[in-house]
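assembly run, all chains below
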Amino acid sequence: MKSKLINFILGRNLKSDDLKNEKYNIFWGLPILSSDAISSVAYAGEEILWILIGVVGLASYKYMFYAALCIVFLMFLLVFSYRQTIDTYPNGGGSYIVAKDNLGTIPGLIAGSALSIDYTLTVAVSTCAGTAAITSAIPSLLKYKVPITVILIIFMTLGNLRGVKESSRLFGIPTYLFILSVAFMIVTGIVKVHFFGASSQALYPIPQATGDISIILFLRAFASGCAALTGIEAVSNGIPSFKEPSQKNAKIVLMLLGIVVLFIFGGLSYLTTLYHAVPNSSNTLISQIATQIFGHSFMYYIIQCTTAIILIMAANTAFAGFPLLLALISKDGFAPRQFSKRGHRLSFSNGIIFLCSMACILVIIFHAETHLLIPLYAVGVFISFTLSQTGMFCRWVKQKSPYWRHKAFVNGLGALVTFATVLIIGITKFHLGAWIIFILIPFLVFIMITIKKHYTAVATQLKLDINQRPKVINFEEQKRYAIVPIDTLNKSFLKALNYARTISNNIIVFHISVDKEATEKLMKKWEEYNIGIPLVIKESPYRSVIHPLVKFIKSEEYVAGPNDTVTVVIPQFVVSKWWGNILHNQTSLFIKGMLLKERNIAIVTVPYIIEEE
Amino acid sequence: MKSKLINFILGRNLKSDDLKNEKYNIFWGLPILSSDAISSVAYAGEEILWILIGVVGLASYKYMFYAALCIVFLMFLLVFSYRQTIDTYPNGGGSYIVAKDNLGTIPGLIAGSALSIDYTLTVAVSTCAGTAAITSAIPSLLKYKVPITVILIIFMTLGNLRGVKESSRLFGIPTYLFILSVAFMIVTGIVKVHFFGASSQALYPIPQATGDISIILFLRAFASGCAALTGIEAVSNGIPSFKEPSQKNAKIVLMLLGIVVLFIFGGLSYLTTLYHAVPNSSNTLISQIATQIFGHSFMYYIIQCTTAIILIMAANTAFAGFPLLLALISKDGFAPRQFSKRGHRLSFSNGIIFLCSMACILVIIFHAETHLLIPLYAVGVFISFTLSQTGMFCRWVKQKSPYWRHKAFVNGLGALVTFATVLIIGITKFHLGAWIIFILIPFLVFIMITIKKHYTAVATQLKLDINQRPKVINFEEQKRYAIVPIDTLNKSFLKALNYARTISNNIIVFHISVDKEATEKLMKKWEEYNIGIPLVIKESPYRSVIHPLVKFIKSEEYVAGPNDTVTVVIPQFVVSKWWGNILHNQTSLFIKGMLLKERNIAIVTVPYIIEEE
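ok done. output:
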């Protein structure tokens, strides 16, 4: 029943061999790995104008176009740089790997944690934005903002748990719808003005200029617009998810992504200049332009609707990228190992569920208020860009392979520009919350190093020398000590005792007396039962059920020496109802947990299965 | 370290023999078991006046006095009735026991759940009231209402976990302070008017009468004042917590409680009449009277302060009563067994923690708003009174012991009056939330019956016939099949293998192949190691680590027959750091959980302890 329900929701289990069928081709790889990058185009231009328009007035449109050009230039720098990375790292070359490989472990971990933080924020921010779109339309839902956002996140999580390919179909379509409808708007808008001479009257008054452009102002505008570049990492990190030839496919997708962003971002920026849209807290730039081009017609609602959906879908890039990143870190031993294992449906289910939980916690803590989360956003991704670019730069300089000067120039320039962006974002948003990131990254790096240390220490201690042979055991002469704890004389105990008698001929039945009455009842019954196995009874004045047993085993009173292994045979009855375990076995669980800490004790659990009506 | 901290907070562990030293004498038993009853006096008179004053104006004070007289009469009816109960039930005679014993299981469970609900509400309501007193004084704390209430509850929980006697001292003193300061106020107030002829001008105008008194109105007023009687049950339920002679001590405490309530309730009602205090949402009756008597002097603040504290302390009666009640229900098998076990410090710690959790959940759900919880309150306790009185009535009628007519009259009258009160409270407050109680009680009864059924079914199946002897086992000829799962060849595995070789000479090492590369590496190493024990490898295309093992054991391929017991020896390494277990052993835990469901498999855990730096 339960597993049928799970299969219905998550799809059937998948064999490991199915993995190659589960990979992306170019057509589905593009939307699933690029929805983050493409969706940020929806607000990047607006962010730039917000900075400029209060100061330079109408001239903003000119400088906005320059800033957009710079960003597109930076994007192609990144695209070409990441194409070099894809060539160099066929198994996935995210910042984590590139930085670790070329700059060392610590820079790698910094890049890894910066990216992890950003992925988590992407999920939280974009689903909150999606909810905001829904609640603007239906204000009565406003008080259910948090539950709606959490449900959206859980819905995405379920979609992603269904496995790689199915989720790409599920989430790929809206990206294409957005691209198509925006492309249609760009073409219509340009045609309308240039061929039909439509008026392009601004909907809102353009503020008067109060000052002149400055380098600082322009850089701030540029930095704000850089939000458009947050999703590019995902493609080069996702190479292993592509169908063969995966490197080639990834490079094509990356280039297509660049072209799509160029077209949409450039197109939208041009339309903004053409129609003089004015940033405004109640009406987005896209909405203004769509109103001017289509009026409040059907097409306007299509634009608004696909924009809202793609903003939510941006979270999906994180769901594709984060589990892969975590699996890489986990394989290196810096994160718990279970993150590197694929689930029943071949997705990295633990990573997906972890991302879901973290995002939900963020949403609940920040009450689904986007504006509280935004300042934390985008710092992380530019830190990881900087480290990745610097890593590639060092690689070329060290290796001096053919054309190394050209390649090093591309990456070096990228490193400088992204580093400048980190500084600008970090400084301007520091007091708004970006400081949290600068505390969180060292903390995460510390945790990851501690985990690695732990795994290394354990592995060292477990390492077996090939010359270390098993003990010489003369089976016939083997001493076998067994203790069977008893609480009441029942069938479950008898089964455990029967088992103990098959493995040992030195058995003691041990009772811990907490309640005198019960103990006397047991003693009487044991005498009646009379099977010639000694019953040892120890008082437990503090009602502890474990210390008297351990004390007895270690005491002189007991026959086994300090180097003999003692087998403790614990009867445990097993009930089929899930809530049954709340009612039983608390004590035996506790005993087992405590005995595990003792060196020479082996713990046997003999299950007795209770049939239920 | 950890246990030292716990000892510091909760006090040292206590031996079972300490139980008799931990019990209450009369002096400490009175405040700890009566703070609920005494504290409700602080608002009972006010509740009566609220109902009356809008209708009958000045005449209210007369009828209030009549209602107070009726309530005092009802209280002494209950006191005498419960003295009869204490005589009859020396081991604690709460409504649960009395109803179960004389009316049957279902009425007993109804009384038990009604009381449990009321105890939980007492904690939530009284701590919320205490928080309200704090936040009225310091309004800037208003937004931290919920955390403050939760902290208050946790503080009480810790106090109660310290053990019976220490908590009575901790919580007993404020009750005495309240009694003394209110007594001082009553005496001063009366002396001032009668001997010094002080004016007793009302602080607020008394509303004009708009109608005449009616039976219905008077009954509603009476029912509202019955809140004063909510804590009486606690004493007769708590007999086992008294020092010997416990019955006599409990009866004395019950009588003292009656006298204290009579004096304070009667005195406050008389003062209200004398000083014409008018109920008012911003100034309590006690505060008005204290103002008139003392002005805003030091004594006024003493009165206000002890009132606030005793309102919070009322929660403590529930902490004393609820765990005892739950322990009784649990001993009868209607609640999980762990509620009947005393903790390290001899209190019923599980019950205390459970009460704390439920109250915190209520506080969080209802946002610490007292007025949302009040309508749910007091229905439960009167349902349990009715059942208890009816039970005692039936007992006398059935047994016909000496003076049975007199005794039956007392309890019969009590049953009628309390039942009438249930009807009045239930009907007037039904739409305000009392309906929740009428849904919740049947639900709790259903759960308790289901638990009992489960325990009975398990006990029946486990019951051992004394003639059912252990199996005849010829130790030397015993077949012993063992399987040791392997993931990597390391010291932990070797220890498990060594152990398996001491108990078996039919060993198979079993590997589940999820990752081909790792499997090949293992096969190569196993060949090198070459110790003559067969290694069986099974592919697991769906990456399950358990099904292939169970399938193999049941298959024809395996040597053991379907009736032979197979021992699965699982290596488990044990790390000392608490977070270490997140990083390891997930798989072995999972395997153990699944294997438990198989009938002929015994599971051995061989711990390998990892030393850490």
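The domain at 2-374 of chain A is CATH 1.20.1740.10 (Amino acid/polyamine transporter I).

Chain A has a mean pLDDT of 83.

not gonna interpret more than that til we talk
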